[in-house]
Amino acid sequence: MLSIQTIRDDTERVRTSVASRGITINIDGILKLDARRRELIVESDELRARRNEVSQEIGKSKEKPADLIAEMREVGQRIKGLEEETRTTEVTLGDMLLEVPNIPATEVPVGDDESKNVVVKDVTSIPNFSFAPKPHWEIGEALDIIDFNRAVKLAGSRFFMLKGKGARLQRALINWLLDVHEENGYQELYLPHLVTRETATGSGQLPKFAENMYHDEDDDLWMIPTAEVPITNMFGDEILGPGELPLSYVAHTPSYRREKASAGKDTRGIKRVHQFEKVEMFKFVEPDASMDALESMTSHVEDICTQLGIPYRVLLLCTGDIGFASMKTYDVEMWAPGSLDWLEVSSISNCSDFQARRAKIRYRSEQGARPTFLHTLNGSGLGIPRALISIIENYQQADSSVLVPEVLRPYTGFDQIKKGD
User: Fold this and answer.
1) What phi and psi values does residue 50 have, to the nearest 5 degrees?
2) 17 C-beta neighbours (distance < 10 Å), count
3) 3-state helix, strand, coil in the chain (%, to 5)
4) CATH number of this structure's domain 4-97, picked from the four choices 1.10.287.40, 3.40.190.10, 3.20.20.70, 3.40.50.1820
């Protein structure tokens, strides 16, 4: 969240930031509530000072002046009323602040939607096939490694089921990714798949994205849309000591998303589904190190694409496409020749101190230093379904078989998927 101080002192910058994202936020309402909150605090403090002063007078007096006693009774009632109004005002102000997105970095391009994203790296050429490449849904069904019909029977639309070597290929990809990230200095975590409302709020998922999350109303627990949500809040309401940063984590979790915002889009195949596997990278860093950390995390994803041997590109997202909590985001997209589509397999974001403020995560730069908010970064490393699509479509052969990328063969135990396996 943005601090009220930032909104108060840099109002026009905040207005410009919000407008560049194509959304409407009642900034004037926030400032009005903030002003009223400060008025209430001043008035309460003045009345408390008066009460203390009169209490001393009454204590020194042999007689108990009736007029002062009556005044103190009124003052006490007034203070009580002011305290109640202050609490209500602070709750309302807090709710309004939760709706304000992060301020994009100055180098983030201004634009209404993804059409204004900028390709900053396109390092590989799209390969030519000697045959017409097929989309993954045709290949998967022909090889009997993806079953859409039975998944729909079990759970409805936007679900899929992997079978045999298809399921094993996914498991191999996940295990390889975890090993690669561990080699890059990320510590592996096993996380809860359900989190509290406070946890979902701390990462920025709530209240804005409530309708896209699955919710257990009885226990008020929320199914995670990404491992970013629980990792963000690992150190919620804590102060990390000198020398503890940076902290780098990686986790494999299922991700659950209702996909209401994308109704009608990408209904074929496994590109946009309600449940999928994901490997997530996350960093807690000092503020001065966060931009370098963003570049480092992006390079780790690029290296994965290179090792898989799949064409990819890197995009700098514009203000209208950047995430709610992010100040700067790179998307890494893999080419899918059968679908004729660039697929986002990773979105790497620097969230500055936005999430840390919401989750109340601070650190001390040195012993005795004043605690300050750290910076958080997150990135897919990778989103599994879209990575699988790219592998299947890029490694398909003329006979509809699919070769396994060399780096995955020690994990699969086979180098090819063919009909009848």
Assistant:
1) -65, -40
2) 21
3) 45, 20, 35
4) 1.10.287.40
- Residue ranges per domain, the chain? 4-97, 114-417
What is d(CA 418, CA 363) in angstroms, rounded to the nearest whole number? 54
CA 415 to chain centre: 35
d(CA 153, CA 63): 86
Q: What is the dihedral of CA 253, 232, 114, 208, to 10 degrees?
A: 100
Would you give the distance in Å from CA 306 to the centre of its chain? 25
- 4-97 and 114-417: identical CATH topology: no
As given in the structure block, the two tokens for residue 317 are 């997202």
CATH 2.40.10.120 fits 114-417, yes or no: no
Q: Kindly tell me the burial class for residue 367, based on how many C-beta atoms sit within 10 Å of its own C-beta (0-12, 13-18, 19 or more).
A: exposed
Comparing 337 with 268, the larger pLDDT belongs to: 337
CA distance linking residue 380 with residue 346, whole number of Å? 4
234: tokens are 């690992």
What mean pLDDT comes out for the span 42-53?
88
277-299 pLDDT per residue, tens: 999 999 999 999 999 999 999 99
- In this structure, what is the dihedral angle of CA atoms 307, 312, 318, 324, given to the nearest 10 degrees? -50
E strand or H helix at 352: none
Residue type (1 letter), 264? G
Query: How many Å apart are CA 333 and CA 304, to the nearest integer?
Result: 12
CA torsion, points 404, 406, 412, 413, in degrees to nearest 10? Answer: 110
- Strand partners of residue 315: 119, 331
